[in-house]
Specification:
The chain contains 4 helices and no strands. By secondary structure, it is an all-alpha fold. α2 (about 25-50) crosses α4 and α3 packs antiparallel against α4 (about 70-100).
Length: about 120
């Protein structure tokens, strides 16, 4: 198995471990502290994916549905789609952030190159 790749069983076990009470408390605190930065990353990822342009059209379509019940169903669907997309982007950002941080492993100090060639 290559580095960074996990079997289905490993992923299932990790997901199961996350369901234990209190397991995410520390992570929730960290995310709350970093929410402004993470929100900027999410917004940029959604913008790059064209989400906002597509969303504007969907909002207009949902708002102009004739019957109230149909309009409410269209708005609920739009909100659920937005939440799902945000969660998926959030997972992708978290995954990449974990990789960037070395999944908690200590980083080697980069070499000092300020005096090279001197």
């Amino acid at each position: 198995m290559s580095a960074g790749r996990f079997s289905d069983a490993e992923v299932d076990a990790a997901i199961d471990a996350l369901t234990h009470p209190g397991r995410l408390r520390d992570a929730e605190s960290r995310v709350a502290e970093m929410a402004p930065q993470l929100q900027l990353i999410l917004a940029e990822a959604l913008k790059e994916g064209g989400w906002f342009e597509a969303q504007e059209s969907q909002v207009r379509q949902a708002a102009t549905v004739g019957a109230d019940a149909d309009r409410m169903a269209a708005i609920r669907t739009l909100l659920a789609d937005e939440m799902r997309m945000s969660m998926l982007v959030g997972v992708a950002v978290g995954w990449e952030l974990s990789r960037e941080l070395g999944a908690g492993e200590p980083h080697a100090t980069p070499p000092d190159t300020t005096n090279e060639g001197a």
